[in-house]
Amino acid sequence: MVTTRIAPALLALSVLVFLVFGLGTDGHAQYRGKTVIAHRGASAYAPEHTAAAYTLAIEQRADYVEQDLQVTKDGQLVCLHDLTLERTTNVKDVFPGRSRTLRREGRDLTGWHVSDFTLAEITQLDAGSWFDPKFKGEKILTFQEAIDLVRGKAGIYPETKAPEVYGSIGFDMEKLVMEVLAKNGLDKPGADPNTPVVIQSFSAESLKKMAKDMGVTLPLIFLVTDRDRDTWLAKERMGEIKTFAAGIGPAKELISGKPEIVTWAHEAGLSVTPYTFRSGNQPADRTVRDEMHDFLYTLGVDAVFTDNPDQFPRK
């Protein structure tokens, strides 16, 4: 990860913009104040997307706990970042002959694809030992299990992960997500004040489908990578984004490189939630708390995704 350092001149400019325009969280989409989202749970300290990581995130006062979602062979939503299982589980040992190469998102991807395994098979996997032996026996959670664990203690923040990939093999990820939320009475804003729900995606088409075709009224966040910055992160595109999303979630380097993105988004009524703030690879004279503080209180972003929710700088 490239460590982001904000030049003093940019900090001064951002303070001036913040003061002149009064930009903050009030009135900007879904957040009530400066907000911390536990990225894959408290993933700096426990294996990502496990009960251990989610529980610790709640203990560390995360406002939301994030769930990346994948789809099993039998159409069940599970919490996992990757399209394949081998990075964070022992699938190579349990199912040694099940790897294959598939065309995914414009490239050949070799591995143990989530969509090749039933939920019953996935529950046999150890999702904790790769991180630390003390987490041996942690399991991949279903989306329902994640909701059960987090509900009433924090918000949930699911991501439709690679929805086009799953659409190409017959799964409607957006429908699956909303069915689970509806089953839990969480498919409308404010349905459970103790469990707010925000949905995120890197796919504009996925968000447009939910907002325009499915009538989803929950806040939707459009995640933006460096690859798409010239396409989407221009002042004239913010109004278009507003037609299908409540906010943007750019890579943090995009914000530090062009702080005016925050102004443009706020002027369009969009929240700004950059990713990902981590304790690893910080320079010797700075901490992840320092970095988050600069983004939240100088650049004026509304929320952050972080592996370290315990380091969130509260005022």
Q: Could you name the ranges where pLDDT drops below 50 across 5 or more consecutive residues?
A: 8-27
Principal-axis shape: globular
Compute the separation of the termini in Å. Answer: 27 Å
Structural class: alpha/beta
State the share of residues found in helices, binned by percent. 25-40%
Strand content: 15-25%
Q: Enumerate how many helices there are, as a single number.
A: 13
Oligomeric organization of the protein chains: single chain
- SSE arrangement, N to C: HEHEEHEEHHEHHEHEHHEHHEHE
State the total count of DSSP E strands.
11
Q: Describe the biggest sheet?
A: 5 strands, mixed
pLDDT averaged over residues: 92
Question: Could you give a quick summary of the protein structure above?
Answer:
With 315 residues, the chain is α/β, with parallel strands linked by helices.
Which helices and strands occur, and which strands form pairs?
Elements: H1 8-21, E1 35-38, H2 51-59, E2 64-71, E3 77-79, H3 91-94, E4 100-104, E5 107-111, H4 119-122, H5 143-150, E6 155-160, H6 163-168, H7 173-183, E7 199-201, H8 204-213, E8 220-224, H9 229-232, H10 238-242, E9 247-250, H11 252-257, H12 260-267, E10 271-272, H13 288-298, E11 303-306
Parallel strand pairs: 1-2, 1-11, 2-6, 7-8, 8-9, 9-10
Antiparallel strand pairs: 2-3, 4-5
Plain-language structure description:
The protein is an alpha/beta fold and 315 residues long. The chain is built from 13 helices and 11 strands. It has helices spanning 8-21, 51-59, 91-94, 119-122, 143-150, 163-168, 173-183, 204-213, 229-232, 238-242, 252-257, 260-267, 288-298; strands spanning 35-38, 64-71, 77-79, 100-104, 107-111, 155-160, 199-201, 220-224, 247-250, 271-272, 303-306. The strands form 3 sheets. Strands 1, 2, 3, 6 and 11 form a 5-stranded mixed sheet that branches. Strand 4 (100-104) and strand 5 (107-111) form a beta hairpin. Residues 8-27 have low confidence and may be disordered.
